[in-house]
Amino acid sequence: MANRAGFLRSGTFRNLAILILVWEVVGRVDWIAGGALPGLSEILIRLWADRGDYPGHVWATVQASVLGFVIGNLVAVGAGILFVLFPTLLRLTRGFNIAVFALPPIAIAPILVLTLSGMAPRITLAALGVYFVTMSATVVGLSQFDTRAADVVRAYGGKDWMVMKLVRLRGAVPDILSGLRIAAPNAVLGAILAEFGGGGRWGLGTYLLGSLGRGDPARLWGIGLVATLIAGLSYLVFAVISARTLGSSRSVTLNTAIPDADDGAERSLPLRLAVIAGAALLPFFLWWAFIKLTGVPDLIAKTPLGVLDYLFLSDTSHIARAKLLAALAETLPITAIGMLAGLGFAFLLAISARMFPGFIKTFMPIALVTQTMPLVALTPLLVLILGRGTSVTLWITISVTFFPAFVLLVQGIQRVPQSVLDLPRAYGASAWTELRMVSIPAALPYLFAATRLTVPRALLGVMIAEWLATGTGLGNLLNQSRGYLDYGMIWTVAAVSVCLSVAFYYAILLIERRTLTRLGMQWVE
Amino acid sequence: MAFTINRRTFIQGAAIAGASAGLPLRARAASALTMQAAWINDAEFSGYFLAMDKGYYSDEGLELTYLSGGPDVIPESTIIAGRADLALTTPDTTIRAISEQGAKFKIIGAQYQKNPIGIVSLKKNPVNTPADLVGKTVAVPPVNTVTVEALLSLNGIDRNAVNIVPYAYDPTPLVRGEIDASLDFTTNVPYTIGLLGEEAQSFLLYDHGVTLFNDTVVVTEETLASRRADLVAWLRASRRGWDENLADPSLYPPQWEDSWFKGTGRSIDNEVFFNTAQKDLIVSGGGIFSMSEEAIEKNLAALQAVGINGTREMFDTTLLEEV
């Protein structure tokens, strides 16, 4: 009881109340683009009127997201453990892992709809949405352990597996949980996107598609809120579990041991080259195998060779290349800007979270809403507010990129050991000085990891904006090609966007390794 | 949504299977046929809903599976992949696929004699003819850009004189004046515009040179050869459904409030409006799905003008003759 009273008097509650009040007033007086943002009460009234429609749709979406979430995460945690036990495997599958993460959902949704049946496209898209996040988090958690604890196990005769079981898995729990936390909204969004395009009868995505034609923002926001509620509840579950377990696995004192150098150096050059070649070829092999296994005819499903043929060997190759290059010229610059903007925003937020914890508690619900509001619903409304120029593209890109980067950065800042923080405090340093001298440098590995995470999402954000608002670049090319039944181009755009993401990823990885090695820091997978 | 089997239903199923195994085969077992529609459930497919509800397909010995569509569903792809036997398509896409990619399709009927797609604007800022589009912003779903380019080219309008932006199926930007016009079904969106307090003004692309069918019934050559009788049966049953539905367009949509139209996000009044508005575009002297020689020629001519080379052989009217 005292707890609840405390909450009512707390700043978080007050800020949230102010926020809702402002929203209500702004919505009621139709300030934003003549009513594109309805008041909360208008949305709730609409939601109540539509209450009969929701159960079937919510049930379908929850089913697909939960199945996708469970399958995707089981695979991800299993893969993460394998990757840590056998680092070569991680190197060999790196190309594949990045490719899975970088697959633009809007490009593969139609492909999944074609090749799989019933609920499978939704479950697959949900699973793909969670795999990379959880896998990375698992590897991070398992890699960053207190070597002193491992030494203790080894001193008592424990093998690698015992270290894994007693030290690393336990230490990884908070990281895995924070991975699951970010992954949860991804699963819901993946399922909704597949529902939107896939032509099923039930699911919030289907409901959204039918509702778009009504020109009723309150309905669209209502669907978005319900999607947010589902995602938010799943986020909350893992956040609560995470908060309960975090303290138990953190080191009390600082480990001053310098991390081991990468064991890659001592292996032979031919072997390393073979692994690199394998990593580059594996995604293409799996792509080829997927098409052969599903048995989809060549006309629809292009293998890697089919795409090469389309781009370089057929009679119309020069037209295809010209279209592709023109689209890339439109998409790439804005993607780079969008990525920087998203990252900058995440960084600012992460610092604010440290400086003003109250502000971030108020902001988190809004941040989560932007992650789970289906963009297909909001883009027509965003266009009314921001037009169809660069600003709408940037806004959408920031909104899809900042959240994962933000969570990673906050985690990096939070993991700074207490003993390191005590030092500047003992000397009477201000919060800013402490942040500048300790927390930000300590979070550097996480900033790099966040950058790598942001690249593919930035491309996705730009493509969504191009598809629904600006009508330019890769996003538009992809969708126009569907009208021409130009399957070659559909596969080409998907392949090119993935290859670009992977290339960016490696570029950042290179800078990261150099910088962190020089600083003697451990990197975050 | 998911198909679950618990122990009880499994035992029941096994018992039924066991019992029926002992029975003599029926003279004519229902043959399974799957159709891929072009969009989510709305009045556009009323004829099929009616025929399913009233058992017209089973009367013809068919067991029909109906797959609804959506933005990512390319109906032609579904039949190439073998996930459906028959699809409702847009003829320009289908014919382009046959002529340019060698896809083995045949068009065996056409639901819309006149394509309901048109340019929709507001009465207070009307776009009455293709020429009015010059200097205007028109929202077009990216998949349909090819159709609008056909309209402009057939009417001698420079493609660069019109600002084409993506359309996301939401009429709000039109009503708010962010765009001047949109490409949509003229049978559908004017209803919503009316509800939003504006009056819609629209013209059909069909009336300005783009003389195309829509929801053409397409099968692969292989299906046509192997399942001809079933396809004729499907046409016959569907025609029955459409005839009955269009006899009074306001009669059936309200009856599907809790079945076909449950939870689609659209209103029943909208479906009645749609069903009524589409009647004249579907009904034909030759019966529903009819493809007269004259109409086929018009389709081919319109496509020719935008560089798509269709031929008479892509249409097979002999099944309709059997119906």
Helix content of chain A: over 70%
Q: In angstroms, what separates the terminal alpha carbons of chain A?
A: 43 Å
Indicate the CATH architecture of the largest domain in chain B. 3-Layer(aba) Sandwich
What spatial form of chain B do the alpha-carbon principal axes imply? globular
Q: What is the rounded distance between the termini of chain B?
A: 36 Å
Instruction: Name the CATH superfamily assignment of the largest domain in chain A.
Output: MetI-like
Domain count of chain B: the total is 2
Give, in order, the helices and strands of chain A.
HHHHHHHHHHHHHHHHHHHHHH
Radius of gyration of chain A: 24 Å
Poorly predicted sequence stretches spanning 5 or more consecutive residues of chain A: 258-265
Structural class of chain B: alpha/beta
Main β sheet profile of chain A: none
CATH structural class of the largest domain in chain B: Alpha Beta
CATH hierarchy, class of the largest domain in chain A: Mainly Alpha
> Hey, roughly how much beta strand do the residues of chain B contain?
15-25%
**Overall pLDDT of chain A:** 83
CATH architecture of the largest domain in chain A: Orthogonal Bundle
Walk across the major sheet of chain B and give the strand order: 2-1-3-10-4
Tell me the radius of gyration of chain B.
21 Å
Q: Could you give a short description of this structure?
A:
The complex is a heterodimer of chains A (525) and B (323). Chain A is an all-alpha fold.
State the main characteristics.
heterodimer, A: 525 residues, mainly alpha, MetI-like fold, 22 helices, 81% helix, globular, B: 323 residues, alpha/beta, D-Maltodextrin-Binding Protein, domain 2, 5-stranded mixed β-sheet, 38% helix, ABC transporter permease subunit (chain A), MetI-like_sf (chain A), cell membrane (chain A)
